[in-house]
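Why does residue order matter? Because the sequence determines the fold. Keep that principle in mind as you read this record.
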Amino acid sequence: MNRPYLWLGIALLVSGVGIGLWQLRKTTTPRMKLAAKSSNFLAREKTLSKEKSEARPKKADEISQRLEEGRVLLRQKGKMRAELIQNPHGTPPSIMQAAEFLGQIEEWEGQFPERKKEFQSYYQECFRDEETMSVTRVQCLKRYVRIAELKENDASRLLSELPSSVQRLYKRAPP
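Structure:
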């Protein structure tokens, strides 16, 4: 057996693996940087917490005003379609904004339980509004069913009145 050739083969194999790993690191780093730049989770999280603290109403009277102002965030079907065309692989910012606003409303529900009827009415208008994005309509319907404490057959009746796209999303959404 000729040992110099064996060591030469092992050296080539090890150096080839090393070069391959170096090339792999070199080619994935820009992708990772791009992904980090586009999503920027840490900066987004800090922004959201700042927005939440500023968005919390000081008085119960401010809730009606904030709900009306937030209605614009829920009625962005056209804007969402444009965002999907621009970036078909990401979640449109309009959907994220609507979800964040609905999360704020849920916080207000806990802070102001005496306004339960107002929140019910808001959710009902939201899921019935044809200009509201389907995914947002589903969220509003789920929250309405929860806050109104509807039975399953009442929820099914409401669901049957809505478009098939909303019905499909509602059935697939987690409880």
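Residues 41-172 form one domain.
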